[in-house]
Write a structure and sequence with these properties.
about 160 residues; 8 strands; four-stranded mixed β-sheet; single chain; alpha/beta; 2,3-Dihydroxybiphenyl 1,2-Dioxygenase, domain 1; 5 helices
């Protein structure tokens, strides 16, 4: 079976810095290889995030990340949501909405509690609608507020 490796393009030679942050944020992660040019500058960085292999490419100012590709992180609880949100948004990241943020290099991340998926799988369409309506008003997702909305609190 072939290996599929996402390659992340960095235009400002920030691939190593990004890999260092990502491997600090996610458990069971590590930088596995750094390839350098003859002048010592970094060209690629191979790293794993909780077992998923990635390559960071310092490719220059020809490409930019966009929302067509994002990384989804399903979190066990609010504490995990808060951890990943703060670690990826700090130092120049941008909070978007509906659980989305952009990290300091413009890559999009969806930080979503598992409870959200449970709530929108409810057999009661009114609970699903209330959950979705609440989520659409949020920036970082809030498990307690999503549960309250599903239960009709404040409606």
């Amino acid at each position: 079976m072939p290996t599929i490796t996402p390659n992340l393009w960095f235009e400002n030679k920030d691939g190593l810095e990004a890999a260092e942050l990502y491997t600090k944020v996610f458990p069971n992660s590590a930088i596995t290889n750094v390839n350098r040019m003859g002048d010592g500058s970094v060209i690629t960085v191979d790293f794993t995030l909780d077992g998923q292999h990635f390559t960071a490419l310092n490719g220059g100012p020809h490409q930019s990340p966009n929302d067509a590709v994002s990384f989804s992180v399903v979190c066990a609880d609010q504490a995990e949501v808060d951890h990943y949100w703060s670690m990826l948004a700090e130092n120049g990241g941008t909070e978007v909405q509906c659980g989305w943020l952009k990290d300091p290099w413009g890559f999009s991340w969806q930080i979503v509690p598992q409870r959200f998926f449970e709530l929108i799988s409810d057999p009661d369409p009114a609970r699903v609608r209330r959950t979705m309506d609440a989520m659409m008003e949020m920036v970082k997702l809030d498990v307690a507020a999503l549960e309250a909305a599903a239960d009709g609190a404040g409606a």
